[in-house]
Amino acid sequence: MKHEGKYHFSHEHIMIPIELDEDDEVKCNACEQLLTEPFIGCPPCQFFLHENCFHVPRSMDHPSHPSHPLTLDPTPPHPYTCNACGSHGKAFGFGCGAHCEFHLHLRCAILPETFSYDDEHPHGLELVFEPPSFKNLGTSDDSQLVKIPCYICNENQVSWLYYCEACEYVAHLKCLLSKYEEMESYVVSDYSSDQEDDDYDDIIQNLRI
Predict the structure, then answer these.
(1) Residue range(s) defining the domain that contains residue 174
(2) Which of 34, 41, 87, 135 could bridge 48 with an S-S bond, Cβ 3.0-4.6 Å?
């Protein structure tokens, strides 16, 4: 069967569909996660992308940084620190071109705005971009607000969280998703107003943090 090649702005050569051999462990150059089929690549350069990573939009408006649009950069500054999870990144990332020093891993930029996993919490969790606070009992002083620690690691790290307001349940996204590594399929929120590609609804179905 003849496969039609594709070009991606991040690579100079044509890319073709590729099948994994048994026991192969190859990482995607965009998200740094292990490749699962379908994926495409340039074998001579050892450059490979998930099919879904291939279709990630080159820019997006993200609610965590409403002042400027974010642009997909295949060669971001190294090392950069992801504003979502606090980890370093060296692969594809979304960044602010307005010199805000704001960077997101590709996989963090497209996390769903809501998350449900009954084994962890009975209610749906909402993605929030800073730790929620509550007021110390017995005081009316707003300066005495206390950050709610992560339910999993019991720390107050500055990173994005999944949050249930009714229960004051907080989980760092990195803690939650690493705790359940078998979760490999997320529904992607549409942050882009320009859906020119019919495949956009399928972006990043199989990423793990």
Answers:
(1) 114-179
(2) 41
